From TrEMBL:
GO biological process, one term: post-transcriptional regulation of gene expression
Ranges where the record places region Disordered: 123-153
Organism: Shewanella woodyi (strain ATCC 51908 / MS32)
GO CC annotation: cytosol
Protein name: RNA chaperone ProQ
Family per similarity comment: Belongs to the ProQ family.
A Pfam family reported for this protein in Swiss-Prot or TrEMBL: ProQ
Gene Ontology molecular functions: RNA strand annealing activity; RNA strand-exchange activity
Skewed-composition ranges (Basic residues): 133-146
Domain of life the protein comes from: Bacteria
All residue ranges annotated as the ProQ/FinO domain in the record: 9-123
Keyword entries, A-Z: Chaperone, Cytoplasm, RNA-binding
Cell location: Cytoplasm
Protein task: RNA chaperone with significant RNA binding, RNA strand exchange and RNA duplexing activities.
Length: 214
């Protein structure tokens, strides 16, 4: 009976796991505002500290930790002079320059992707609004000859943008690039860079994140 109760308590949502980490390790994981760089190898410390905790699994912890360290506010905190900290908030060494440069590059790329996504969304909204404001076509006068059949207008193109791994979650609807046309489906599982998607056709496929479109 205890095993069943533990399984029902296990956290699966990444946001819920992050909230649990904020509460359990408040000196390490900062819920709001500027964060501090984490100790290298912190995941192993975290897994050992929570080894007897039935609420989280190592897989879910890894996903939550990846989302935390890829957030903009975390990447902004990886800067010169900053000290890495452990689970108890204790300083454990300064950052290396290559880690600072990597964080700055990752932040820049993430912000550029977000900007491109916003622009694409705004462009699609403007195109849709413009199409809705087109004046109604004049009715042609009646003729003795049958009028030609109207040509069906092509369906508006769907603007899809590349997915960002840390923004994906289970049960999210996405499009998978298979061949020329994207195929709709739902995310079943996320493991590192691989995303398992169940297509609307019923087929389940495992693809890299670069093949996922939103």
């Amino acid at each position: 009976m205890e095993v069943m109760m533990e399984s029902t308590e296990k956290l699966t949502d990444t946001n819920a796991i992050l909230a649990y980490l904020y509460e359990t390790f408040p000196l390490c994981f900062i819920a709001e505002g500027e964060t501090k760089p984490l100790k290298i190898g912190l995941f192993q410390d975290l897994a050992e500290r929570l080894a007897d905790d039935s609420k989280v699994s190592k897989t879910q912890l890894r996903i939550a930790l990846r989302r935390y360290t890829s957030s903009w506010r975390y990447l902004k905190g990886v800067k010169a002079g900053a000290q890495r900290i452990d689970l108890d908030g204790q300083a454990c060494g300064e950052l290396e320059q290559e880690h600072i440069e990597h964080a700055q590059l990752t932040l820049k790329e993430s912000q550029e992707k977000a900007k491109a996504k916003r622009i694409a969304k705004a462009t699609a909204a403007k195109a849709s609004e413009k199409a809705s404001k087109k004046p109604a076509k004049k009715v042609a006068p009646k003729r003795t000859k049958p009028a030609p059949k109207p040509v069906k207008e092509a369906a508006p193109a769907v603007n899809l943008t590349p997915a960002v791994l840390n923004e994906l979650k289970q049960n999210q609807r996405v499009n998978v690039k298979l061949g020329k046309s994207p195929v709709a489906g739902v995310i079943v599982d996320i493991k590192k860079e691989d995303v398992q998607v169940q297509l609307d056709s019923g087929l389940t496929v495992k693809v890299r994140v670069e093949h996922i479109m939103l």
